[in-house]
Amino acid sequence: MDTSAPQVLSLDEIQRRVDVPRLVDEIARGFAAYSAGRAVVPPVGYLTFERPPGDVHIKYGYVVGESSYVVKIASGFPENSALGIPAGDGLMLRFDQRTGALTHILLDRAYLTDVRTAAAGAVAARYLAPAQVGRIGVLGTGVQARLQPQLLRNVTGCTSVVAWGRRRERLLAYAADMRTQGFEVEPVGSPTDVAAACNLIVTTTAAREPLLSAEAVRPGTHVTAVGADAPGKQELAPELFAKAQRVVVDSLAQCADHGELAHAIRAGTVRLEEVVELGAVVAGTAPGRRADDEITVCDLTGVAVQDIVVASHVCGAG
To answer: Which residues are catalytically annotated?
Structure first.
């Protein structure tokens, strides 16, 4: 076994190594590998906290034929904002698949989890969003509310955002921040107002009750939901799944367990056999958007293959 010390990468070094356009392509290929059965990804490990509310995800796995496996720990404590500290933290450990030796410690403070989640949103938009995205709708004001439009700009070219958040002061701060990133931002008073103005919507909150109704979503709209990444979370009304012409998920097994899809299945508004995985769409074995007037929904709960891909992106191929 290789006994050399693992390479430790700081957040600054990790951020310097991320090439967003290349990462989006690599994440797409990772989804295709997952849906083709080439990724070994066991069920997610969870720790859930009530006071204060928070959760910790432990995700791990490997891609057959590559040289490494990855273990990721990431936490999310939404009330941290009141303390003036980030809501998320974490790290990734990368091991040699042939020997089990630890090769890299990625002290990313959950940055890689955040950026690979946003990259997945960009992949979903590439295959499911309308050909012309007029305005991007965002529900939420946190990290994903910022990163999703930034990566979507690489896919859609759109820099016009309509945003909603529960707290007006945080919404206005978000709008001001995004304007410094080159976006035009209109803060609005409700999720319905977002849906009325946008044909690409991303939901990024930790909500536990639906925010976006089926009635609010116009024909020709794509919705990517990234908030329901743990049991109990929900942002979309189950009826939206019945209204949509195409429902796509990152993982059938995972989303049926705790994603937006799980709520829709329990409500009887969609059947699992009607749903396809994003990796199958990427690979061309399942269709993505087929017409301009379709409503499409993509449920992203976060799959360990994304962590494997982003760790390899930062550390080197394989």
So the answer is: 72
- Closest by CA to 205, choosing from 261, 121, 141, is 141
As a whole-number percent, the residues of the chain with pLDDT over 90 amount to: 92
User: What SS3 state is found at 152?
Assistant: helix
Residue 123 has which token pair?
A: 């992949």
* Residue 3 vs residue 170, higher pLDDT: 170
Q: Which CATH superfamily does the domain covering 7-112+305-315 fall into?
A: ornithine cyclodeaminase, domain 1 (3.30.1780.10)
Nearest 10 degrees: Cα torsion 18, 251, 56, 265:
140
Are 231 and 46 within 8 A, CB to CB? Answer: yes
Cα separation of 277 and 248, whole Å?
Answer: 5
Q: Which helix (H) or strand (E) holds 138?
A: strand 136-139
Kindly indicate whether the domain formed by 130-303 is annotated with CATH number 3.40.50.300. Answer: no
Q: What are the pLDDT digits (tens) for 130-145?
A: 999 999 999 999 999 9
Cis peptide before 52 (omega within 30 of 0): yes
Nearest to 248 by CA among 212, 216, 214, 286: 286
